[in-house]
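We modelled each protein-ligand pair independently. The example shown here corresponds to the copper (II) ion entry; the chain sequence is given first, followed by the ligand as SMILES.
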Amino acid sequence: MRRGAIVRVVVIALLAAGAATAVALFIPWLPPVQSKEGERIDFVFWVVVAICIAVFAVVAAVTLYSVITFRVRPDDDSDGPPVHGHTGLEITWTAIPAVLVTIIAVLSAVALAENGDLKSNRLKVDVTARQFAWSFKYPQYGGFETTELRLEENRQVELNLRALDVIHSFWVPEFRQKQDAVPGIVTHLPITPTKVGTDTLICTELCGLGHALMRAKVIVMRPADFEQWARAQQRKGAQAGAG
Ligand SMILES: [Cu+2]
């Protein structure tokens, strides 16, 4: 390749990378992340996006340059030159993706392992999914039951999910993770909320006519507020039991 050609390919690649980066950054694709596990997932996601932008830029630049430079002239009916491959190029375009895929695999494995790590001081909540509602039990606080999920800021919760009828799936977009609730088995999901506020739990497995309405409020509270609320619920449950 002549120097002028290389400069042209690089300029097109930079323009393509710039356009793709703008699309990635200036459109709010994801809701704000509000859990530690979600932050790790987002990190892997953005690394993959960056790799995709780089690959896209190279492919777009070589394609556009070739289409413009090597297009056939009018009345040119001759055959193109016979090309039998290029060993150096083939090794390059096999080795680079192998390295990239390995990087993604390692980052994903580390994020998954860290996200599955259970802390000893975790809150435990038994989640029950049924057509078409969620309910939540707090076994560490006398086992009272609610229809909204209340969690503590910066304290890991281990959700133990059960389904009473068909497969449902637990999803809070701000927490990023999804976990199916499957009849007959108990599935688990650790979450560490990082922001006080209210989000929405959405069933993300088509589970019947009321699927679209199968939602519940998720309220992340300051530790002291959560403790106060949980103790109050526990006392109420104990009184109702005694009555
Ligand atoms: Cu459902």
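The helical segments are 3-26, 36-69, 87-115, 223-242.
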